[in-house]
Amino acid sequence: MSKEPNKRLFVGALPFKYTEGELVTLFAPFGRITALRIMHNQWGKSRGMGFVEYDNLQSAIDAKQKLHNFAVEPERTIIVDYAQPDPYLTPEGAARHIEALAHKKKKRPITSPSTYVAPKPTSVSDDKPVFHPKSYYEHQRPTVFKSRAFHAKVGAKFSSRTRSK
């Protein structure tokens, strides 16, 4: 299954230490590069793949033919193939992206502490006061240090150390 030739190339199996400058020097002899990008994860580390886009189709075809399975390091070859079109640039891809953002906003309503309204009890009799748990009045998260279980564990830990000496 062969992909349709286009000006945008996918470059895979790049060494993780490879920079965009090194990628430019590798692909520049084949024509004028209009866009180049190495993909990184959320921590800024290279994912070992990238994209190169040329200004004309013939440059991309030549680069793919010459650089596919090209050895960039001993026993390390890169994969060069025609990239699929960017989904954000197609009309249906842009519409799907907008729809997903709208769905995400509907799913998770934003409430701030100042606009919070406490739920009203369903049945209240005058002779019986409404009971609210302690956390209803306190807006702080209870800490683990206030629990009896924590102190029992810590006390047992230190008592075993003192007895063994």
Question: Which short descriptors sum up this protein?
Answer:
165 residues, alpha+beta, Alpha-Beta Plaits, 4-stranded antiparallel beta sheet, two-stranded antiparallel sheet, globular
Overview of this structure, please?
The chain is an alpha+beta fold. The protein has a 4-stranded antiparallel β-sheet with strand order 2-3-1-6, covered by helices on one side. It has a two-stranded antiparallel sheet with strand order 4-5. The protein has 5 helices and 6 strands. A hairpin with a 5-residue loop joins strand 2 and strand 3.
CATH top level class name of the domain at 8-85: Alpha Beta
Number of distinct beta strands: 6
Report the β-strand fraction as a percent range: 15-25%
| Spatial separation of the terminal alpha carbons | 74 Å
- Structural class based on helices, strands and sheet pairing: alpha+beta
Mean pLDDT: 78
In the CATH hierarchy, the third-tier topology of the domain at 8-85 is known as Alpha-Beta Plaits
Poorly predicted residue ranges: none
User: What is the H/E string?
Assistant: EHEEHEEEHHH
- Which homologous superfamily in CATH is the superfamily of the domain at 8-85? RRM (RNA recognition motif) domain
Principal-axes geometry comes out as: globular
Shape-level CATH architecture of the domain at 8-85? 2-Layer Sandwich
Total number of helical segments?
5
